[in-house]
Each structure stands twice: as C-alpha cells, then as structure tokens.
Design goal:
about 20% strand; five-stranded parallel sheet; three-stranded antiparallel sheet
Length: about 250
Amino acid sequence: MEAARVAAERGHDVVLFEKDRTLGGQLKLAMTPPFKRDLWGLLAYLKGQVRRKVKVKLQQEIHSQDLLNYPFDSVIVATGCAPPSPTRYPHAKVANCWDILRGKAKIEGQRVAVIGKWRVACETAELLSKRRKKEVTLIHSGPIEELGCDMEPIFERRLLLNRLKDCGVEILNDTAVVEITDEGVKVHSHGAGFIPCDHVVVEEVPTLNNSLLRELRGNVEVIGIGDCIEPRDLYQAIHDGFRAGYRIG
C-alpha cells in the first residue's frame, strides 16, 4: 500500500492487486495482540490514501503471465511470506502462533505452553493470557536477554515483558524442549523437567513467498519489497514500500 501510494503521488498510473477480500496483509495480524489497536489508524490511513489515487483489485490473485500480458512498465512485488506450520513438533495438540493470531486454531483446555523467543511468541503469550484468560508458560531455550530481542528495547520489549509479568505469564528461559506428549512438554533446564499443559503453541519461521518475484525477473522491471525478500517488521516494510514507490520511473 505504501509503494502504491508513493508511486501514485509521483504521477504513475498504479494498479494494486490483492488476493484477499481486504487490504492489510500481515498488518491485520499485527493488530490482534493487546495494546496494538492503534495500528487500526495506520491501516485506515493507508487504505484511504490508496483508494484516492490507486486502482485496487481485491480478491484477485495475480500470476506472472497475467502481469506480463498487461502493459505495465514496472512491477513491485510485495507478496510477503507464507504462514508456517509447526513442523518441529508434529503433534495433534500443537498449533503455530500465526494460526492463533488469525483465529484459525482452537485452544483446548486452560493451560497453554508457548515455545519461542521472538516478538510473535511474546505477543501470542500475552494475547492468550490477557484476552483468552489462559494459564500461559512461555518457554525459551536461550538467556532472558534474547527473549523479544527483535523488538525495540525500551518502549517495546521492556514494556511487553512487564505486561507478561503483570498478567501472570510464567517465563522459562534457558529451557530446551525435549518432547511434546499428550500430557504436556518435556523440557531440559539444569536437569529433566515436565510442564503439564492442554495445548502447545509454537513460534515457527515463515517461508518466503517469492515465486512471483523470481518468475518476473529478467522479463520486466521488477522490485521486491517487504517479507518476500526477508521477514522483518512493519517499520522496515513501510520504508521498503516508500523507497520502491520513489525509485520507479
């Protein structure tokens, strides 16, 4: 949306293809955790700006040959990344963080273990504890300093860790997951241990969705931006979009 906005402001005739029913992509997921409702304002702003000067085609998944058949001079690819699956722990009681944030996974029981160390794991743990009133244990294999290390340290990470503490999330760092069973999670932390739980949520690394970018290279002027190049945060994605919209033509 930012790339389309900037390109249109510079006088280009822009068409934005979106395969879903609404604009927003992963920004819609980012707004799900507590204390992130302000992102609705950002999404509303971007939608409003795009609709002023950009031709938007919703529910239209575009393919490389479709784009090559259009008279486009440039293509900006912002296809993002594909949702991960909990392949590390193939168990019926395991879901991934993305499915929790999208509301596609049903959490059975009261006790939930969240496995991971990045922002997504921390925010999912907060969501489950604060909004869904679950008893949450957050398990991280490294030192506490690495938990949430992909967040801005002062105003994001510190405040989020404080909120996790306030809502009763138990944080177990330096704790390696050995096995997931029907009864809970076997761990190793200075000795064998076991965490009883009803459901397990795993933070998985998403997969780059860059097939369209690869197919277009060499056939048309193309710029890849955002998560289809490398998974990263909203700040970087918007700056990618701005620079791409400014670069073309």
